[in-house]
């Protein structure tokens, strides 16, 4: 199980790198096309990997389940969260999205038969959330953005949708993680593409190689490869531990911005990192590991 900490950090690093590449992609592409390109390229990456590695589906999970997970994992949050961000600052939005682990804990007893949440899991989620709050405290205290109650509600509903999807992912039977990742991302790609076609999108007037390569990176790494790693972590450590990636992603994002974009890293960032590392360490308890394992294979 030591491998789960490496996977957690690697997933946080890859997803944390998405922000700087999305910023480059936005110089040429509208957000809707970036989302579609990311999902489709990610699906094709996993499809090719399945062929190269000769991984075949065991057929133990219904496509209805994959479509439902795709709806909860992508279509709903990808629609509600950007809409909600129109009414709140990026700092507040990040903290609201950080409630995903709380929703995982809330829905685990309802969706996972015979599951029990250990005290160390609850403590890790709470401490990690405090780390996330400290990371974005300056922006919150500065009062960035206007407050509209509908905005936070939309983001919280999106976070709850992510949490439910995370729990459902652990119910994909004994299917290979690569197949699960491929099928879920394929379902999500189809749904996002349909939403984009229905709502309409403005095509870019000019393209740059940096923007195209950024979308390719977002698809291959931040959708394809990382989603495969995400499925492995769920199978090995359970949904609650996996949900801690939501605390690592913004932290890595800030550090990557500091290294490559010379963005400022204050004392609050180091405090956030320390709290998040403490939160992850709480999951080393034997009771927590047993609980997570029973959830992952229930």
TrEMBL record:
Pfam families tied to this protein: EamA
Domain of life: Bacteria
Subcellular location: Membrane
UniProt entry keywords in alphabetical sequence: Membrane, Transmembrane, Transmembrane helix
Chief location category: membrane
Membrane topology according to the record: Multi-pass membrane protein
Statement: the UniProt record of this protein carries the keyword Phosphoprotein: no
InterPro entries, A to Z: AA-Vitamin_Transporters, EamA_dom, EmrE-like
A GO CC term assigned to this protein in UniProt: membrane
Domain EamA: start-end pairs: 5-135, 150-282
TM region(s), chain numbering: 32-50, 62-81, 87-110, 122-143, 149-168, 180-199, 211-233, 240-261, 267-285
Family to which this protein belongs: Belongs to the EamA transporter family.
Protein name: EamA family transporter
Organism encoding this protein: Vibrio gazogenes
């Amino acid at each position: 199980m030591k491998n789960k900490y490496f996977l957690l950090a690697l997933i946080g690093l890859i997803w944390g790198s998405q922000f700087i590449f999305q910023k480059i992609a936005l110089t040429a592409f509208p957000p809707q096309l970036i989302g579609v390109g990311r999902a489709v390229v990610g699906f094709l990456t996993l499809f090719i990997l399945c062929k190269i590695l000769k991984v075949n589906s065991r057929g133990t999970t219904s496509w209805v389940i994959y479509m439902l997970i795709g709806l909860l994992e992508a279509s709903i949050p990808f629609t509600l969260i950007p809409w909600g961000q129109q009414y709140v600052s990026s700092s507040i939005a990040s903290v609201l999205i950080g409630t995903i682990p709380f929703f995982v804990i809330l829905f685990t007893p309802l969706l996972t038969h015979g599951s029990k949440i250990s005290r160390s899991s609850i403590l890790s989620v709470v401490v990690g959330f405090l780390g996330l709050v400290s990371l974005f405290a300056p922006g919150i205290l500065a009062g960035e953005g206007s407050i509209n109650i509908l905005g936070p509600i939309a983001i919280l509903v999106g976070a709850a949708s992510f949490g439910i999807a995370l729990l459902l992912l652990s119910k994909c039977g004994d299917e290979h993680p690569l197949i699960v990742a491929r099928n879920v991302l394929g379902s999500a790609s189809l749904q996002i593409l349909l939403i984009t076609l229905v709502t309409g999108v403005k095509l870019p007037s000019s393209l740059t190689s940096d923007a195209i390569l950024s979308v390719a990176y977002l698809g291959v790494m931040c959708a394809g490869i990382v989603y495969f790693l995400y499925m492995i972590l769920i199978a090995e450590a359970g949904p609650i531990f996996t949900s801690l990636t939501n605390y690592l992603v913004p932290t890595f994002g800030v550090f990557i911005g500091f290294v490559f974009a010379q963005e400022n890293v204050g004392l609050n960032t180091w405090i956030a990192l320390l709290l998040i590392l403490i939160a992850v360490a709480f999951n080393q308890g034997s009771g927590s590991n047993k609980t997570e394992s029973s959830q992952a294979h229930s």
